Amino acid sequence: MSLVEIHDVSKSYGANQVLKGVSLNIDKGEVVAVIGRSGSGKSTLLRCVNGLEPVQAGTIRIDGVQVNDPATDLRKLRQEVGIVFQQFNLFPHLSVSDNITLAPRVVKKQKPEEAREVAREVLARVGLADKLDAYPAQLSGGQQQRVAIARSLAMRPKLMLFDEVTSALDPELTGEVLKVLESVAQEGMTMMLVTHEMGFARRFGSRVVFMHEGRIREEGQAAAVLAQPKTPELTTFLSAVLH
Amino acid sequence: MIREFGLIDIMYLVAAARWTLALTAVAFAGSAVLGLALAILRILPVAPLRWFAATYIQLVQGTPLLVWLFLIFFGLPLAGISVNPWIAAAVAFSIYGSAFLGEIWRGALVSIAKTQWEAGASLGLSLGEQLRYVIIPQSIRIAIPPTVGFLVQLIKNTSLAAVIGFVELTREGQLTAAGTYKPFAVYITVACIYFAMCFPLTQWSRSLERKLDVAR
Fold first, then answer.
1. Least CA distance to A156: which residue of chain B?
2. Rg (CA), chain B
3. SS3 for chain B, per residue?
4. How many other CB atoms are found less than 10 A from the CB of residue B119?
C-alpha cells in the first residue's frame, strides 16, 4: 500500500476546473517533484492532500485514511502531514521557539520543556540552533523558511508537502533551503514537492510528475523524464524554465 | 433658594464623575464580552451564526442609544421586570457598545492574512486554537487604537444615562445648575471634567497608533 493514494481527483473553482481526474501514488520514502506551469493545478493538488482544499470527486488516502471524507478527523491527519508554504507563514508574534513548540504543546500536549527540547533538535537539523529565541522578523527569508521546515519536522510527520518553498527567496538564499530539503530527503522522509528547481528535482526526486492543464501529462524517473521528455508540452516547459 | 456656584459644587461634580467612570467601566466590560462573541460569530464558517451577528449589529447600530435606554428602563417594568437606573444603563450601554466593538474587532480579525489560519490548521490546530493562539494575539495590535477611540465615545455617551435619572457627571451638572442658576459656569466645568477624562485617552490612542504602526 502506498503512503499517498490519489485516485481520479477532480476539483473546480466555480466553472474553472483546475484538477481533471488526477491519480498518483507515492510510496513511503519517495521524493516526488511536481512540476508544471503556473495554473497547471500543481499547488492545488498539494493543498488537497492535507485537506486545505476540498475536492469534488475522487479520493485521496494517506496511510489508508481518506482525506476527503467528512468523518475523517482532519486535525489528527494534519499532525502526520507537514506542509511548508511559499511565503513561510511563520507566526510573526511568536519567537522561533514558540513557532515550533506551539502545535506540539497545544495539539500533542507535550510538556513545555519537552517541546523546547524538540525545538532545539529540529532547529539544529536546519542549521539554526542559535536562533531559538529570535523573532521571525529578525531572520532572513532563507532562515525563516528553514524555521518553517523545522516547525513542520517538530510534529514528526510521515509525509511532508512543500509548496514552491524557494520561489519567494532571493537566488542566493535558495541554496541554504535546498540543502535542508536534501538532508530531510536523505533521512528517508516521504516528500511531495511542487518546485521550479529542476536541478533539485533531478538530483533528489525519485520521480517527477509533470502537470499540464489540470492533468498529469507525464511522469517517471526524474533524470529520464527531464532528459528525454515525451510530450511536446513538457519539452516546451523545460526549454522555458531551463532557458 | 438659590445658592452660589462654589468650590464645593466643583467637588461634587468631580465626585459625580466617578459614576461616569464606573458606568463606563461596566459598560465597556459588557461590550467587550458581547463584542468579542459577535466578532467571532461574524467570521465563523457557519452562515446562520454570521447572519445572526450581522443582523444584531445592524439593528443596534441603526437605532439610537437613547431609545435603548428608554426601552429597557421604561419597557422592562411593563413586562414585570423591575430595573433600577444602574442596571438599565449597564444593559443598554453593553448592547450598544457590543455592536460597535464587535465590528471593530471583526475588522481586526479579518485583517490577519488567511495564510496564518492555514498555517495553524496545517499544524493540526482546531478553529478555536487557531483563533486563540494565532489570530487574536496578532489582531490585538490592530484593534487597540480604535478600541481606545471607542472608549472615548463611550465616556461621553454615558451622559445620556442622565435622562433615566442615573446620577453621573451630566445629571449632577443639571442638579447643580438648577440649584445655583449658573448653567454657563456649571456646564463649562462639566465639559472640562469630560475633557480631562477623554483627552489623555485620545493622546494615548494616537501614540499607540504611531507605535504599533512602525513596529514590525
1. B123
2. 21
3. CCCCCCHHHHHHHHHHHHHHHHHHHHHHHHHHHHHHHHHHHHHCCCHHHHHHHHHHHHHHHCCCHHHHHHHHHHHHHHCCCCCCHHHHHHHHHHHHHHHHHHHHHHHHHHCCCHHHHHHHHHCCCCHHHHHHHHHHHHHHHHHHHHHHHHHHHHHHHHHHHHHHCCCCHHHHHHHHHHHHCCHHHHHHHHHHHHHHHHHHHHHHHHHHHHHHHHCC
4. 25
Superfamily of domain B7-215: MetI-like (1.10.3720.10)
Query: Domain residues of chain B, as ranges?
Result: 7-215
pLDDT of residue A80: 94
CA angle B134, B135, B139 (to 5 degrees): 125
For B117, nearest residue in chain A (alpha carbons) = A89
- Please, which residues have CB within 8 angstroms of residue B193's CB and are 6 or more apart in sequence? B13, B14, B17, B169
pLDDT tens readout for residues A12-41: 998 999 999 999 999 999 999 999 998 899
Instruction: Determine whether the interchain pair B129/A89 forms a contact, defined as Cβ–Cβ distance below 8 Å.
Output: no
Please give the residue of chain B at the shortest CA–CA distance from A152.
B123
Interface test with A, best of B111, B122, B131, B216 (most A CBs within 10 A): B122
CA distance A97 to chain B (A): 14
> What predicted TM-score, i.e. pTM, was given to this entire model?
0.88
